[in-house]
């Protein structure tokens, strides 16, 4: 059993985030965990922004000694649950046609936050969730990180592996194309054999560790907690916490 399994706090249905909002590289940023931590993790949220579930996930990781920063790369312009309800197709199309997080626009912001963290911490990792995974992969700062995790990664492509030269953790769901995700993993594993990890949560939907996650108990909450346990174990190993 991993140490994270023993020490990661339980998920709470009624929850108040433990961090604070600061400014990093000009962006409002949720920050939690020791400011003097040896290791820091840039956590790139999904299209729903600062959801309660993803903030609790950041706090779970911070409880293990990491400094976690989650910048507001979408500058407050988040998707909402209503956009995905029947009858809201026009609003949904309008949101995505003008999506504020277009991948090219995030290249420098991600790199700027990486540089900020490297100036303050001796080891820096990154988590990209959903859209955030691809934003990290395409960033000019992707080479700044010592370890990288992709959680229910969107827009994955086989050539993503060409950008990844550090230990990789992948947590796909039933909604990702596993023929592509498996190939990314195989190609990164060929470069860094034995230093990567993947678990396919094949009965869970895209977003189960973020805004679509459940913190109310039952199998979905157990999977949510397991996912963050995997992340904690992975980053403890490769960021040397």
UniProtKB/TrEMBL annotation:
The keyword Hydrolase belongs to this UniProt entry's keyword annotation? yes
A GO molecular function annotation here is: hydrolase activity
Residues crossing the lipid bilayer are: none
**Superkingdom, taxonomy of origin:** Eukaryota
Pfam families assigned: DLH
Which residue intervals define the domain Dienelactone hydrolase in the entry? 28-238
Sorted alphabetically, the keyword list is: Hydrolase
Which PANTHER family does the UniProt record give?
DIENELACTONE HYDROLASE DOMAIN-CONTAINING PROTEIN-RELATED, DIENELACTONE HYDROLASE FAMILY PROTEIN (AFU_ORTHOLOGUE AFUA_6G01940)
In Swiss-Prot or TrEMBL terms, this protein is called Alpha/Beta hydrolase protein
Biological classification of the source = Eukaryota, Fungi, Dikarya, Basidiomycota, Agaricomycotina
């Amino acid at each position: 059993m991993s140490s994270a399994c023993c020490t990661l706090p339980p998920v709470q249905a009624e929850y108040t985030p433990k961090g604070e909002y600061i400014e990093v590289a000009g962006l409002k940023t949720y920050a939690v965990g020791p400011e003097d931590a040896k290791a820091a993790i840039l956590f790139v949220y999904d299209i729903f922004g600062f959801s309660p579930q993803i903030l609790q996930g950041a706090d779970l990781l911070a409880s293990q000694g990491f400094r976690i920063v989650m910048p507001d790369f979408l500058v407050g312009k988040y998707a909402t649950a209503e956009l995905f309800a029947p009858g809201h197709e026009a609003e949904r199309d309008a949101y995505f046609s003008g999506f504020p997080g277009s991948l090219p626009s995030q290249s420098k912001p991600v790199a700027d936050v990486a540089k900020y963290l490297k100036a303050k911490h001796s080891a820096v990792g990154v988590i990209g969730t959903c859209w955030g995974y691809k934003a990290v992969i395409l960033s000019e700062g992707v080479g700044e990180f010592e370890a990288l995790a992709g959680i229910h990664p969107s827009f994955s492509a086989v050539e993503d592996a060409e950008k990844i030269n550090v230990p990789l953790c992948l947590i796909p769901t039933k909604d990702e194309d596993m023929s592509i995700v498996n190939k990314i993993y195989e190609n990164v594993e060929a470069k860094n054999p034995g230093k990567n990890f993947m678990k396919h949560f094949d009965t869970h939907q895209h977003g189960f560790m973020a805004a679509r996650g459940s913190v109310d108990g039952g199998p979905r909450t157990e999977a949510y907690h397991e996912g963050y346990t995997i992340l904690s174990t992975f980053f403890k190993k490769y960021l040397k916490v």
